[in-house]
Amino acid sequence: MTETIGQGTGRAEGSTQHLHYELHLPHPVDKVWAAVATPEGLPGWLAAADVFEPRLGGAITLRWLNGAQDPEQSVHSGHITAWDPDVVAEYTIDLHGRCRFHLEPTAGHEGTTLRFTNEFDGDDALRLDCLAGWHDHFELLVEALRGRPADWSKWTPDRWRELREGYAAAEGAPG
Question: Is the dihedral of CA 91, 92, 93, 99 positive or negative?
Fold first, then answer.
């Protein structure tokens, strides 16, 4: 884990998994917002936004670009369930449940604290998969904000596997 991306945490309440991350990004809120809440920014680190209606209740369809060519595995839809420009973008989609990005300017407004939460139904193994997956994507977000968006044609699951093993070890779970 780094100063920029803290260790993600997860807990279960019944079958509902709750993930949390806190990122400290050396970029202003408007730049981070553009990356996490616009169809132009999302493909640089997360997924293509094939449908994106930037308003509460708006439709969203994300198409993951890191591997799966089967639309059933890579395309997932839902709605924007919270929307406060430059502050909160929340997407509830069929693949990952509720994904909330909360942005706060840091002192001097030169940086941003991004608090991310994700709630979804699943077991402990899926929680570890998602902790690793989001961490991998947040590393890509850091690079995209530096002007180096993901080259999805070169993406492999190697870094995800490494992160997955690390999260499993931290929880004392089998890798």
Answer: positive
Q: What is the pLDDT of residue 85?
A: 97
Question: Structure tokens of 123?
Answer: 């077991």
Contact 63, 47 (CB under 8 A): yes
**Which residue from 24, 42, 10, 49 is spatially nearest to 137, judged by alpha carbons?**
42
Rounded Cα distance between 166 and 117, Å, is 20
DSSP letter for 73, please: H
Under 8 Å between Cβ of 54 and 41: no
| Per-residue pLDDT tens over the stretch 117-141 | 999 999 999 999 999 999 999 999 9
- Angle made by CA atoms 66, 71, 75, in degrees to the nearest 5: 70
Cβ atoms within 10 Å of 161's Cβ, excluding its own: 13
Residue type, 91: Y
In this prediction the pTM is: 0.94
CB neighbours (10 Å) of residue 23? 21
Q: Coil, strand, or helix at residue 128?
A: helix
DSSP assignment of 95-112 equals TTEEEEEEEEE-GGGSSE
Q: Tell me what the mean pLDDT of segment 10-36 comes to.
A: 97
Q: What's the confidence (pLDDT) of residue 70?
A: 66
